[in-house]
């Protein structure tokens, strides 16, 4: 397996190179510049022209790309035009918030989806199955940002149970209050993200459980007198996890990429909100760095899904 993983990682190198070129060209093709309006809306055009020339934005694209790649190999992602600090330090300061939010959302998603999917499949056609199916259909039809807005309105403003902005309270002192404040700030966005993320997992798992419980090996186990609880635990559940494991890697990396909506609506200072602000202010260095990171995460998600699938079912080998 390790040789296969190494080969897959080597194959990703040309993919990352092509991705970096496309990302760089698309960022440069955006209208506007990072200086107009960010300094002074009434700034002298000559001053803008001088800043553009000083930062090499008038150089040919291949020359700008080469300088960017050289700096990239030295661990330098450039400086942010908007925040006036190194991009690597800027992203590192936001990555922790995004990582904790994504991890919390993933744990809640699978903790809710797996029991719901098995329960719905086990009680096919009964009232619990109908309730879960209605839940998945309704949730699937509502856009994610609408769920976020409704959640903020109900639980943040009407009930006042959770904070609606930021990642930590300014009044938090000490490690206990800091951890508690972080938890209260990610609880509502994590819960709303988990409610939306359970839909596909529940539907897939329910279908697989229904197919598995009518299969021959389950009938054989039942004829031998194996308890129903053991059949679902050792036979049906494990085989039903295969399609879930097939896109588990995409789900994990997708949470990091898909936090843009959540962080924007909640004004949560993570990588997603940073990405939106960098687009608004034409902060090219931040845009290219973040899109490249997101692209690499998607490539790693493909490999991670294959690894998880091979761990769940040893008969499957990645190649």
Automatic annotation (TrEMBL):
Start and end residues of each ABC transmembrane type-1 domain: 95-305
Main location: membrane
Membrane topology: Multi-pass membrane protein
UniProt entry keywords in alphabetical sequence: Cell membrane, Membrane, Transmembrane, Transmembrane helix, Transport
UniProt cross-references to InterPro entries, sorted A to Z: BPD_transp_1_N (IPR045621), MetI-like (IPR000515), MetI-like_sf (IPR035906)
Membrane-crossing residue ranges in chain numbering: 9-27, 99-122, 134-162, 182-205, 241-266, 286-312
Coiled coil, from the record: none
Domain of life: Bacteria
Any single Pfam family the record assigns to this protein: BPD_transp_1
Subcellular location(s) per record: Cell membrane
Entry similarity comment: Belongs to the binding-protein-dependent transport system permease family.
UniProt-recorded name of the protein: ABC transporter permease
Organism for this UniProt entry: Levilactobacillus tongjiangensis
Lineage, opening ranks: Bacteria, Bacillati, Bacillota, Bacilli, Lactobacillales
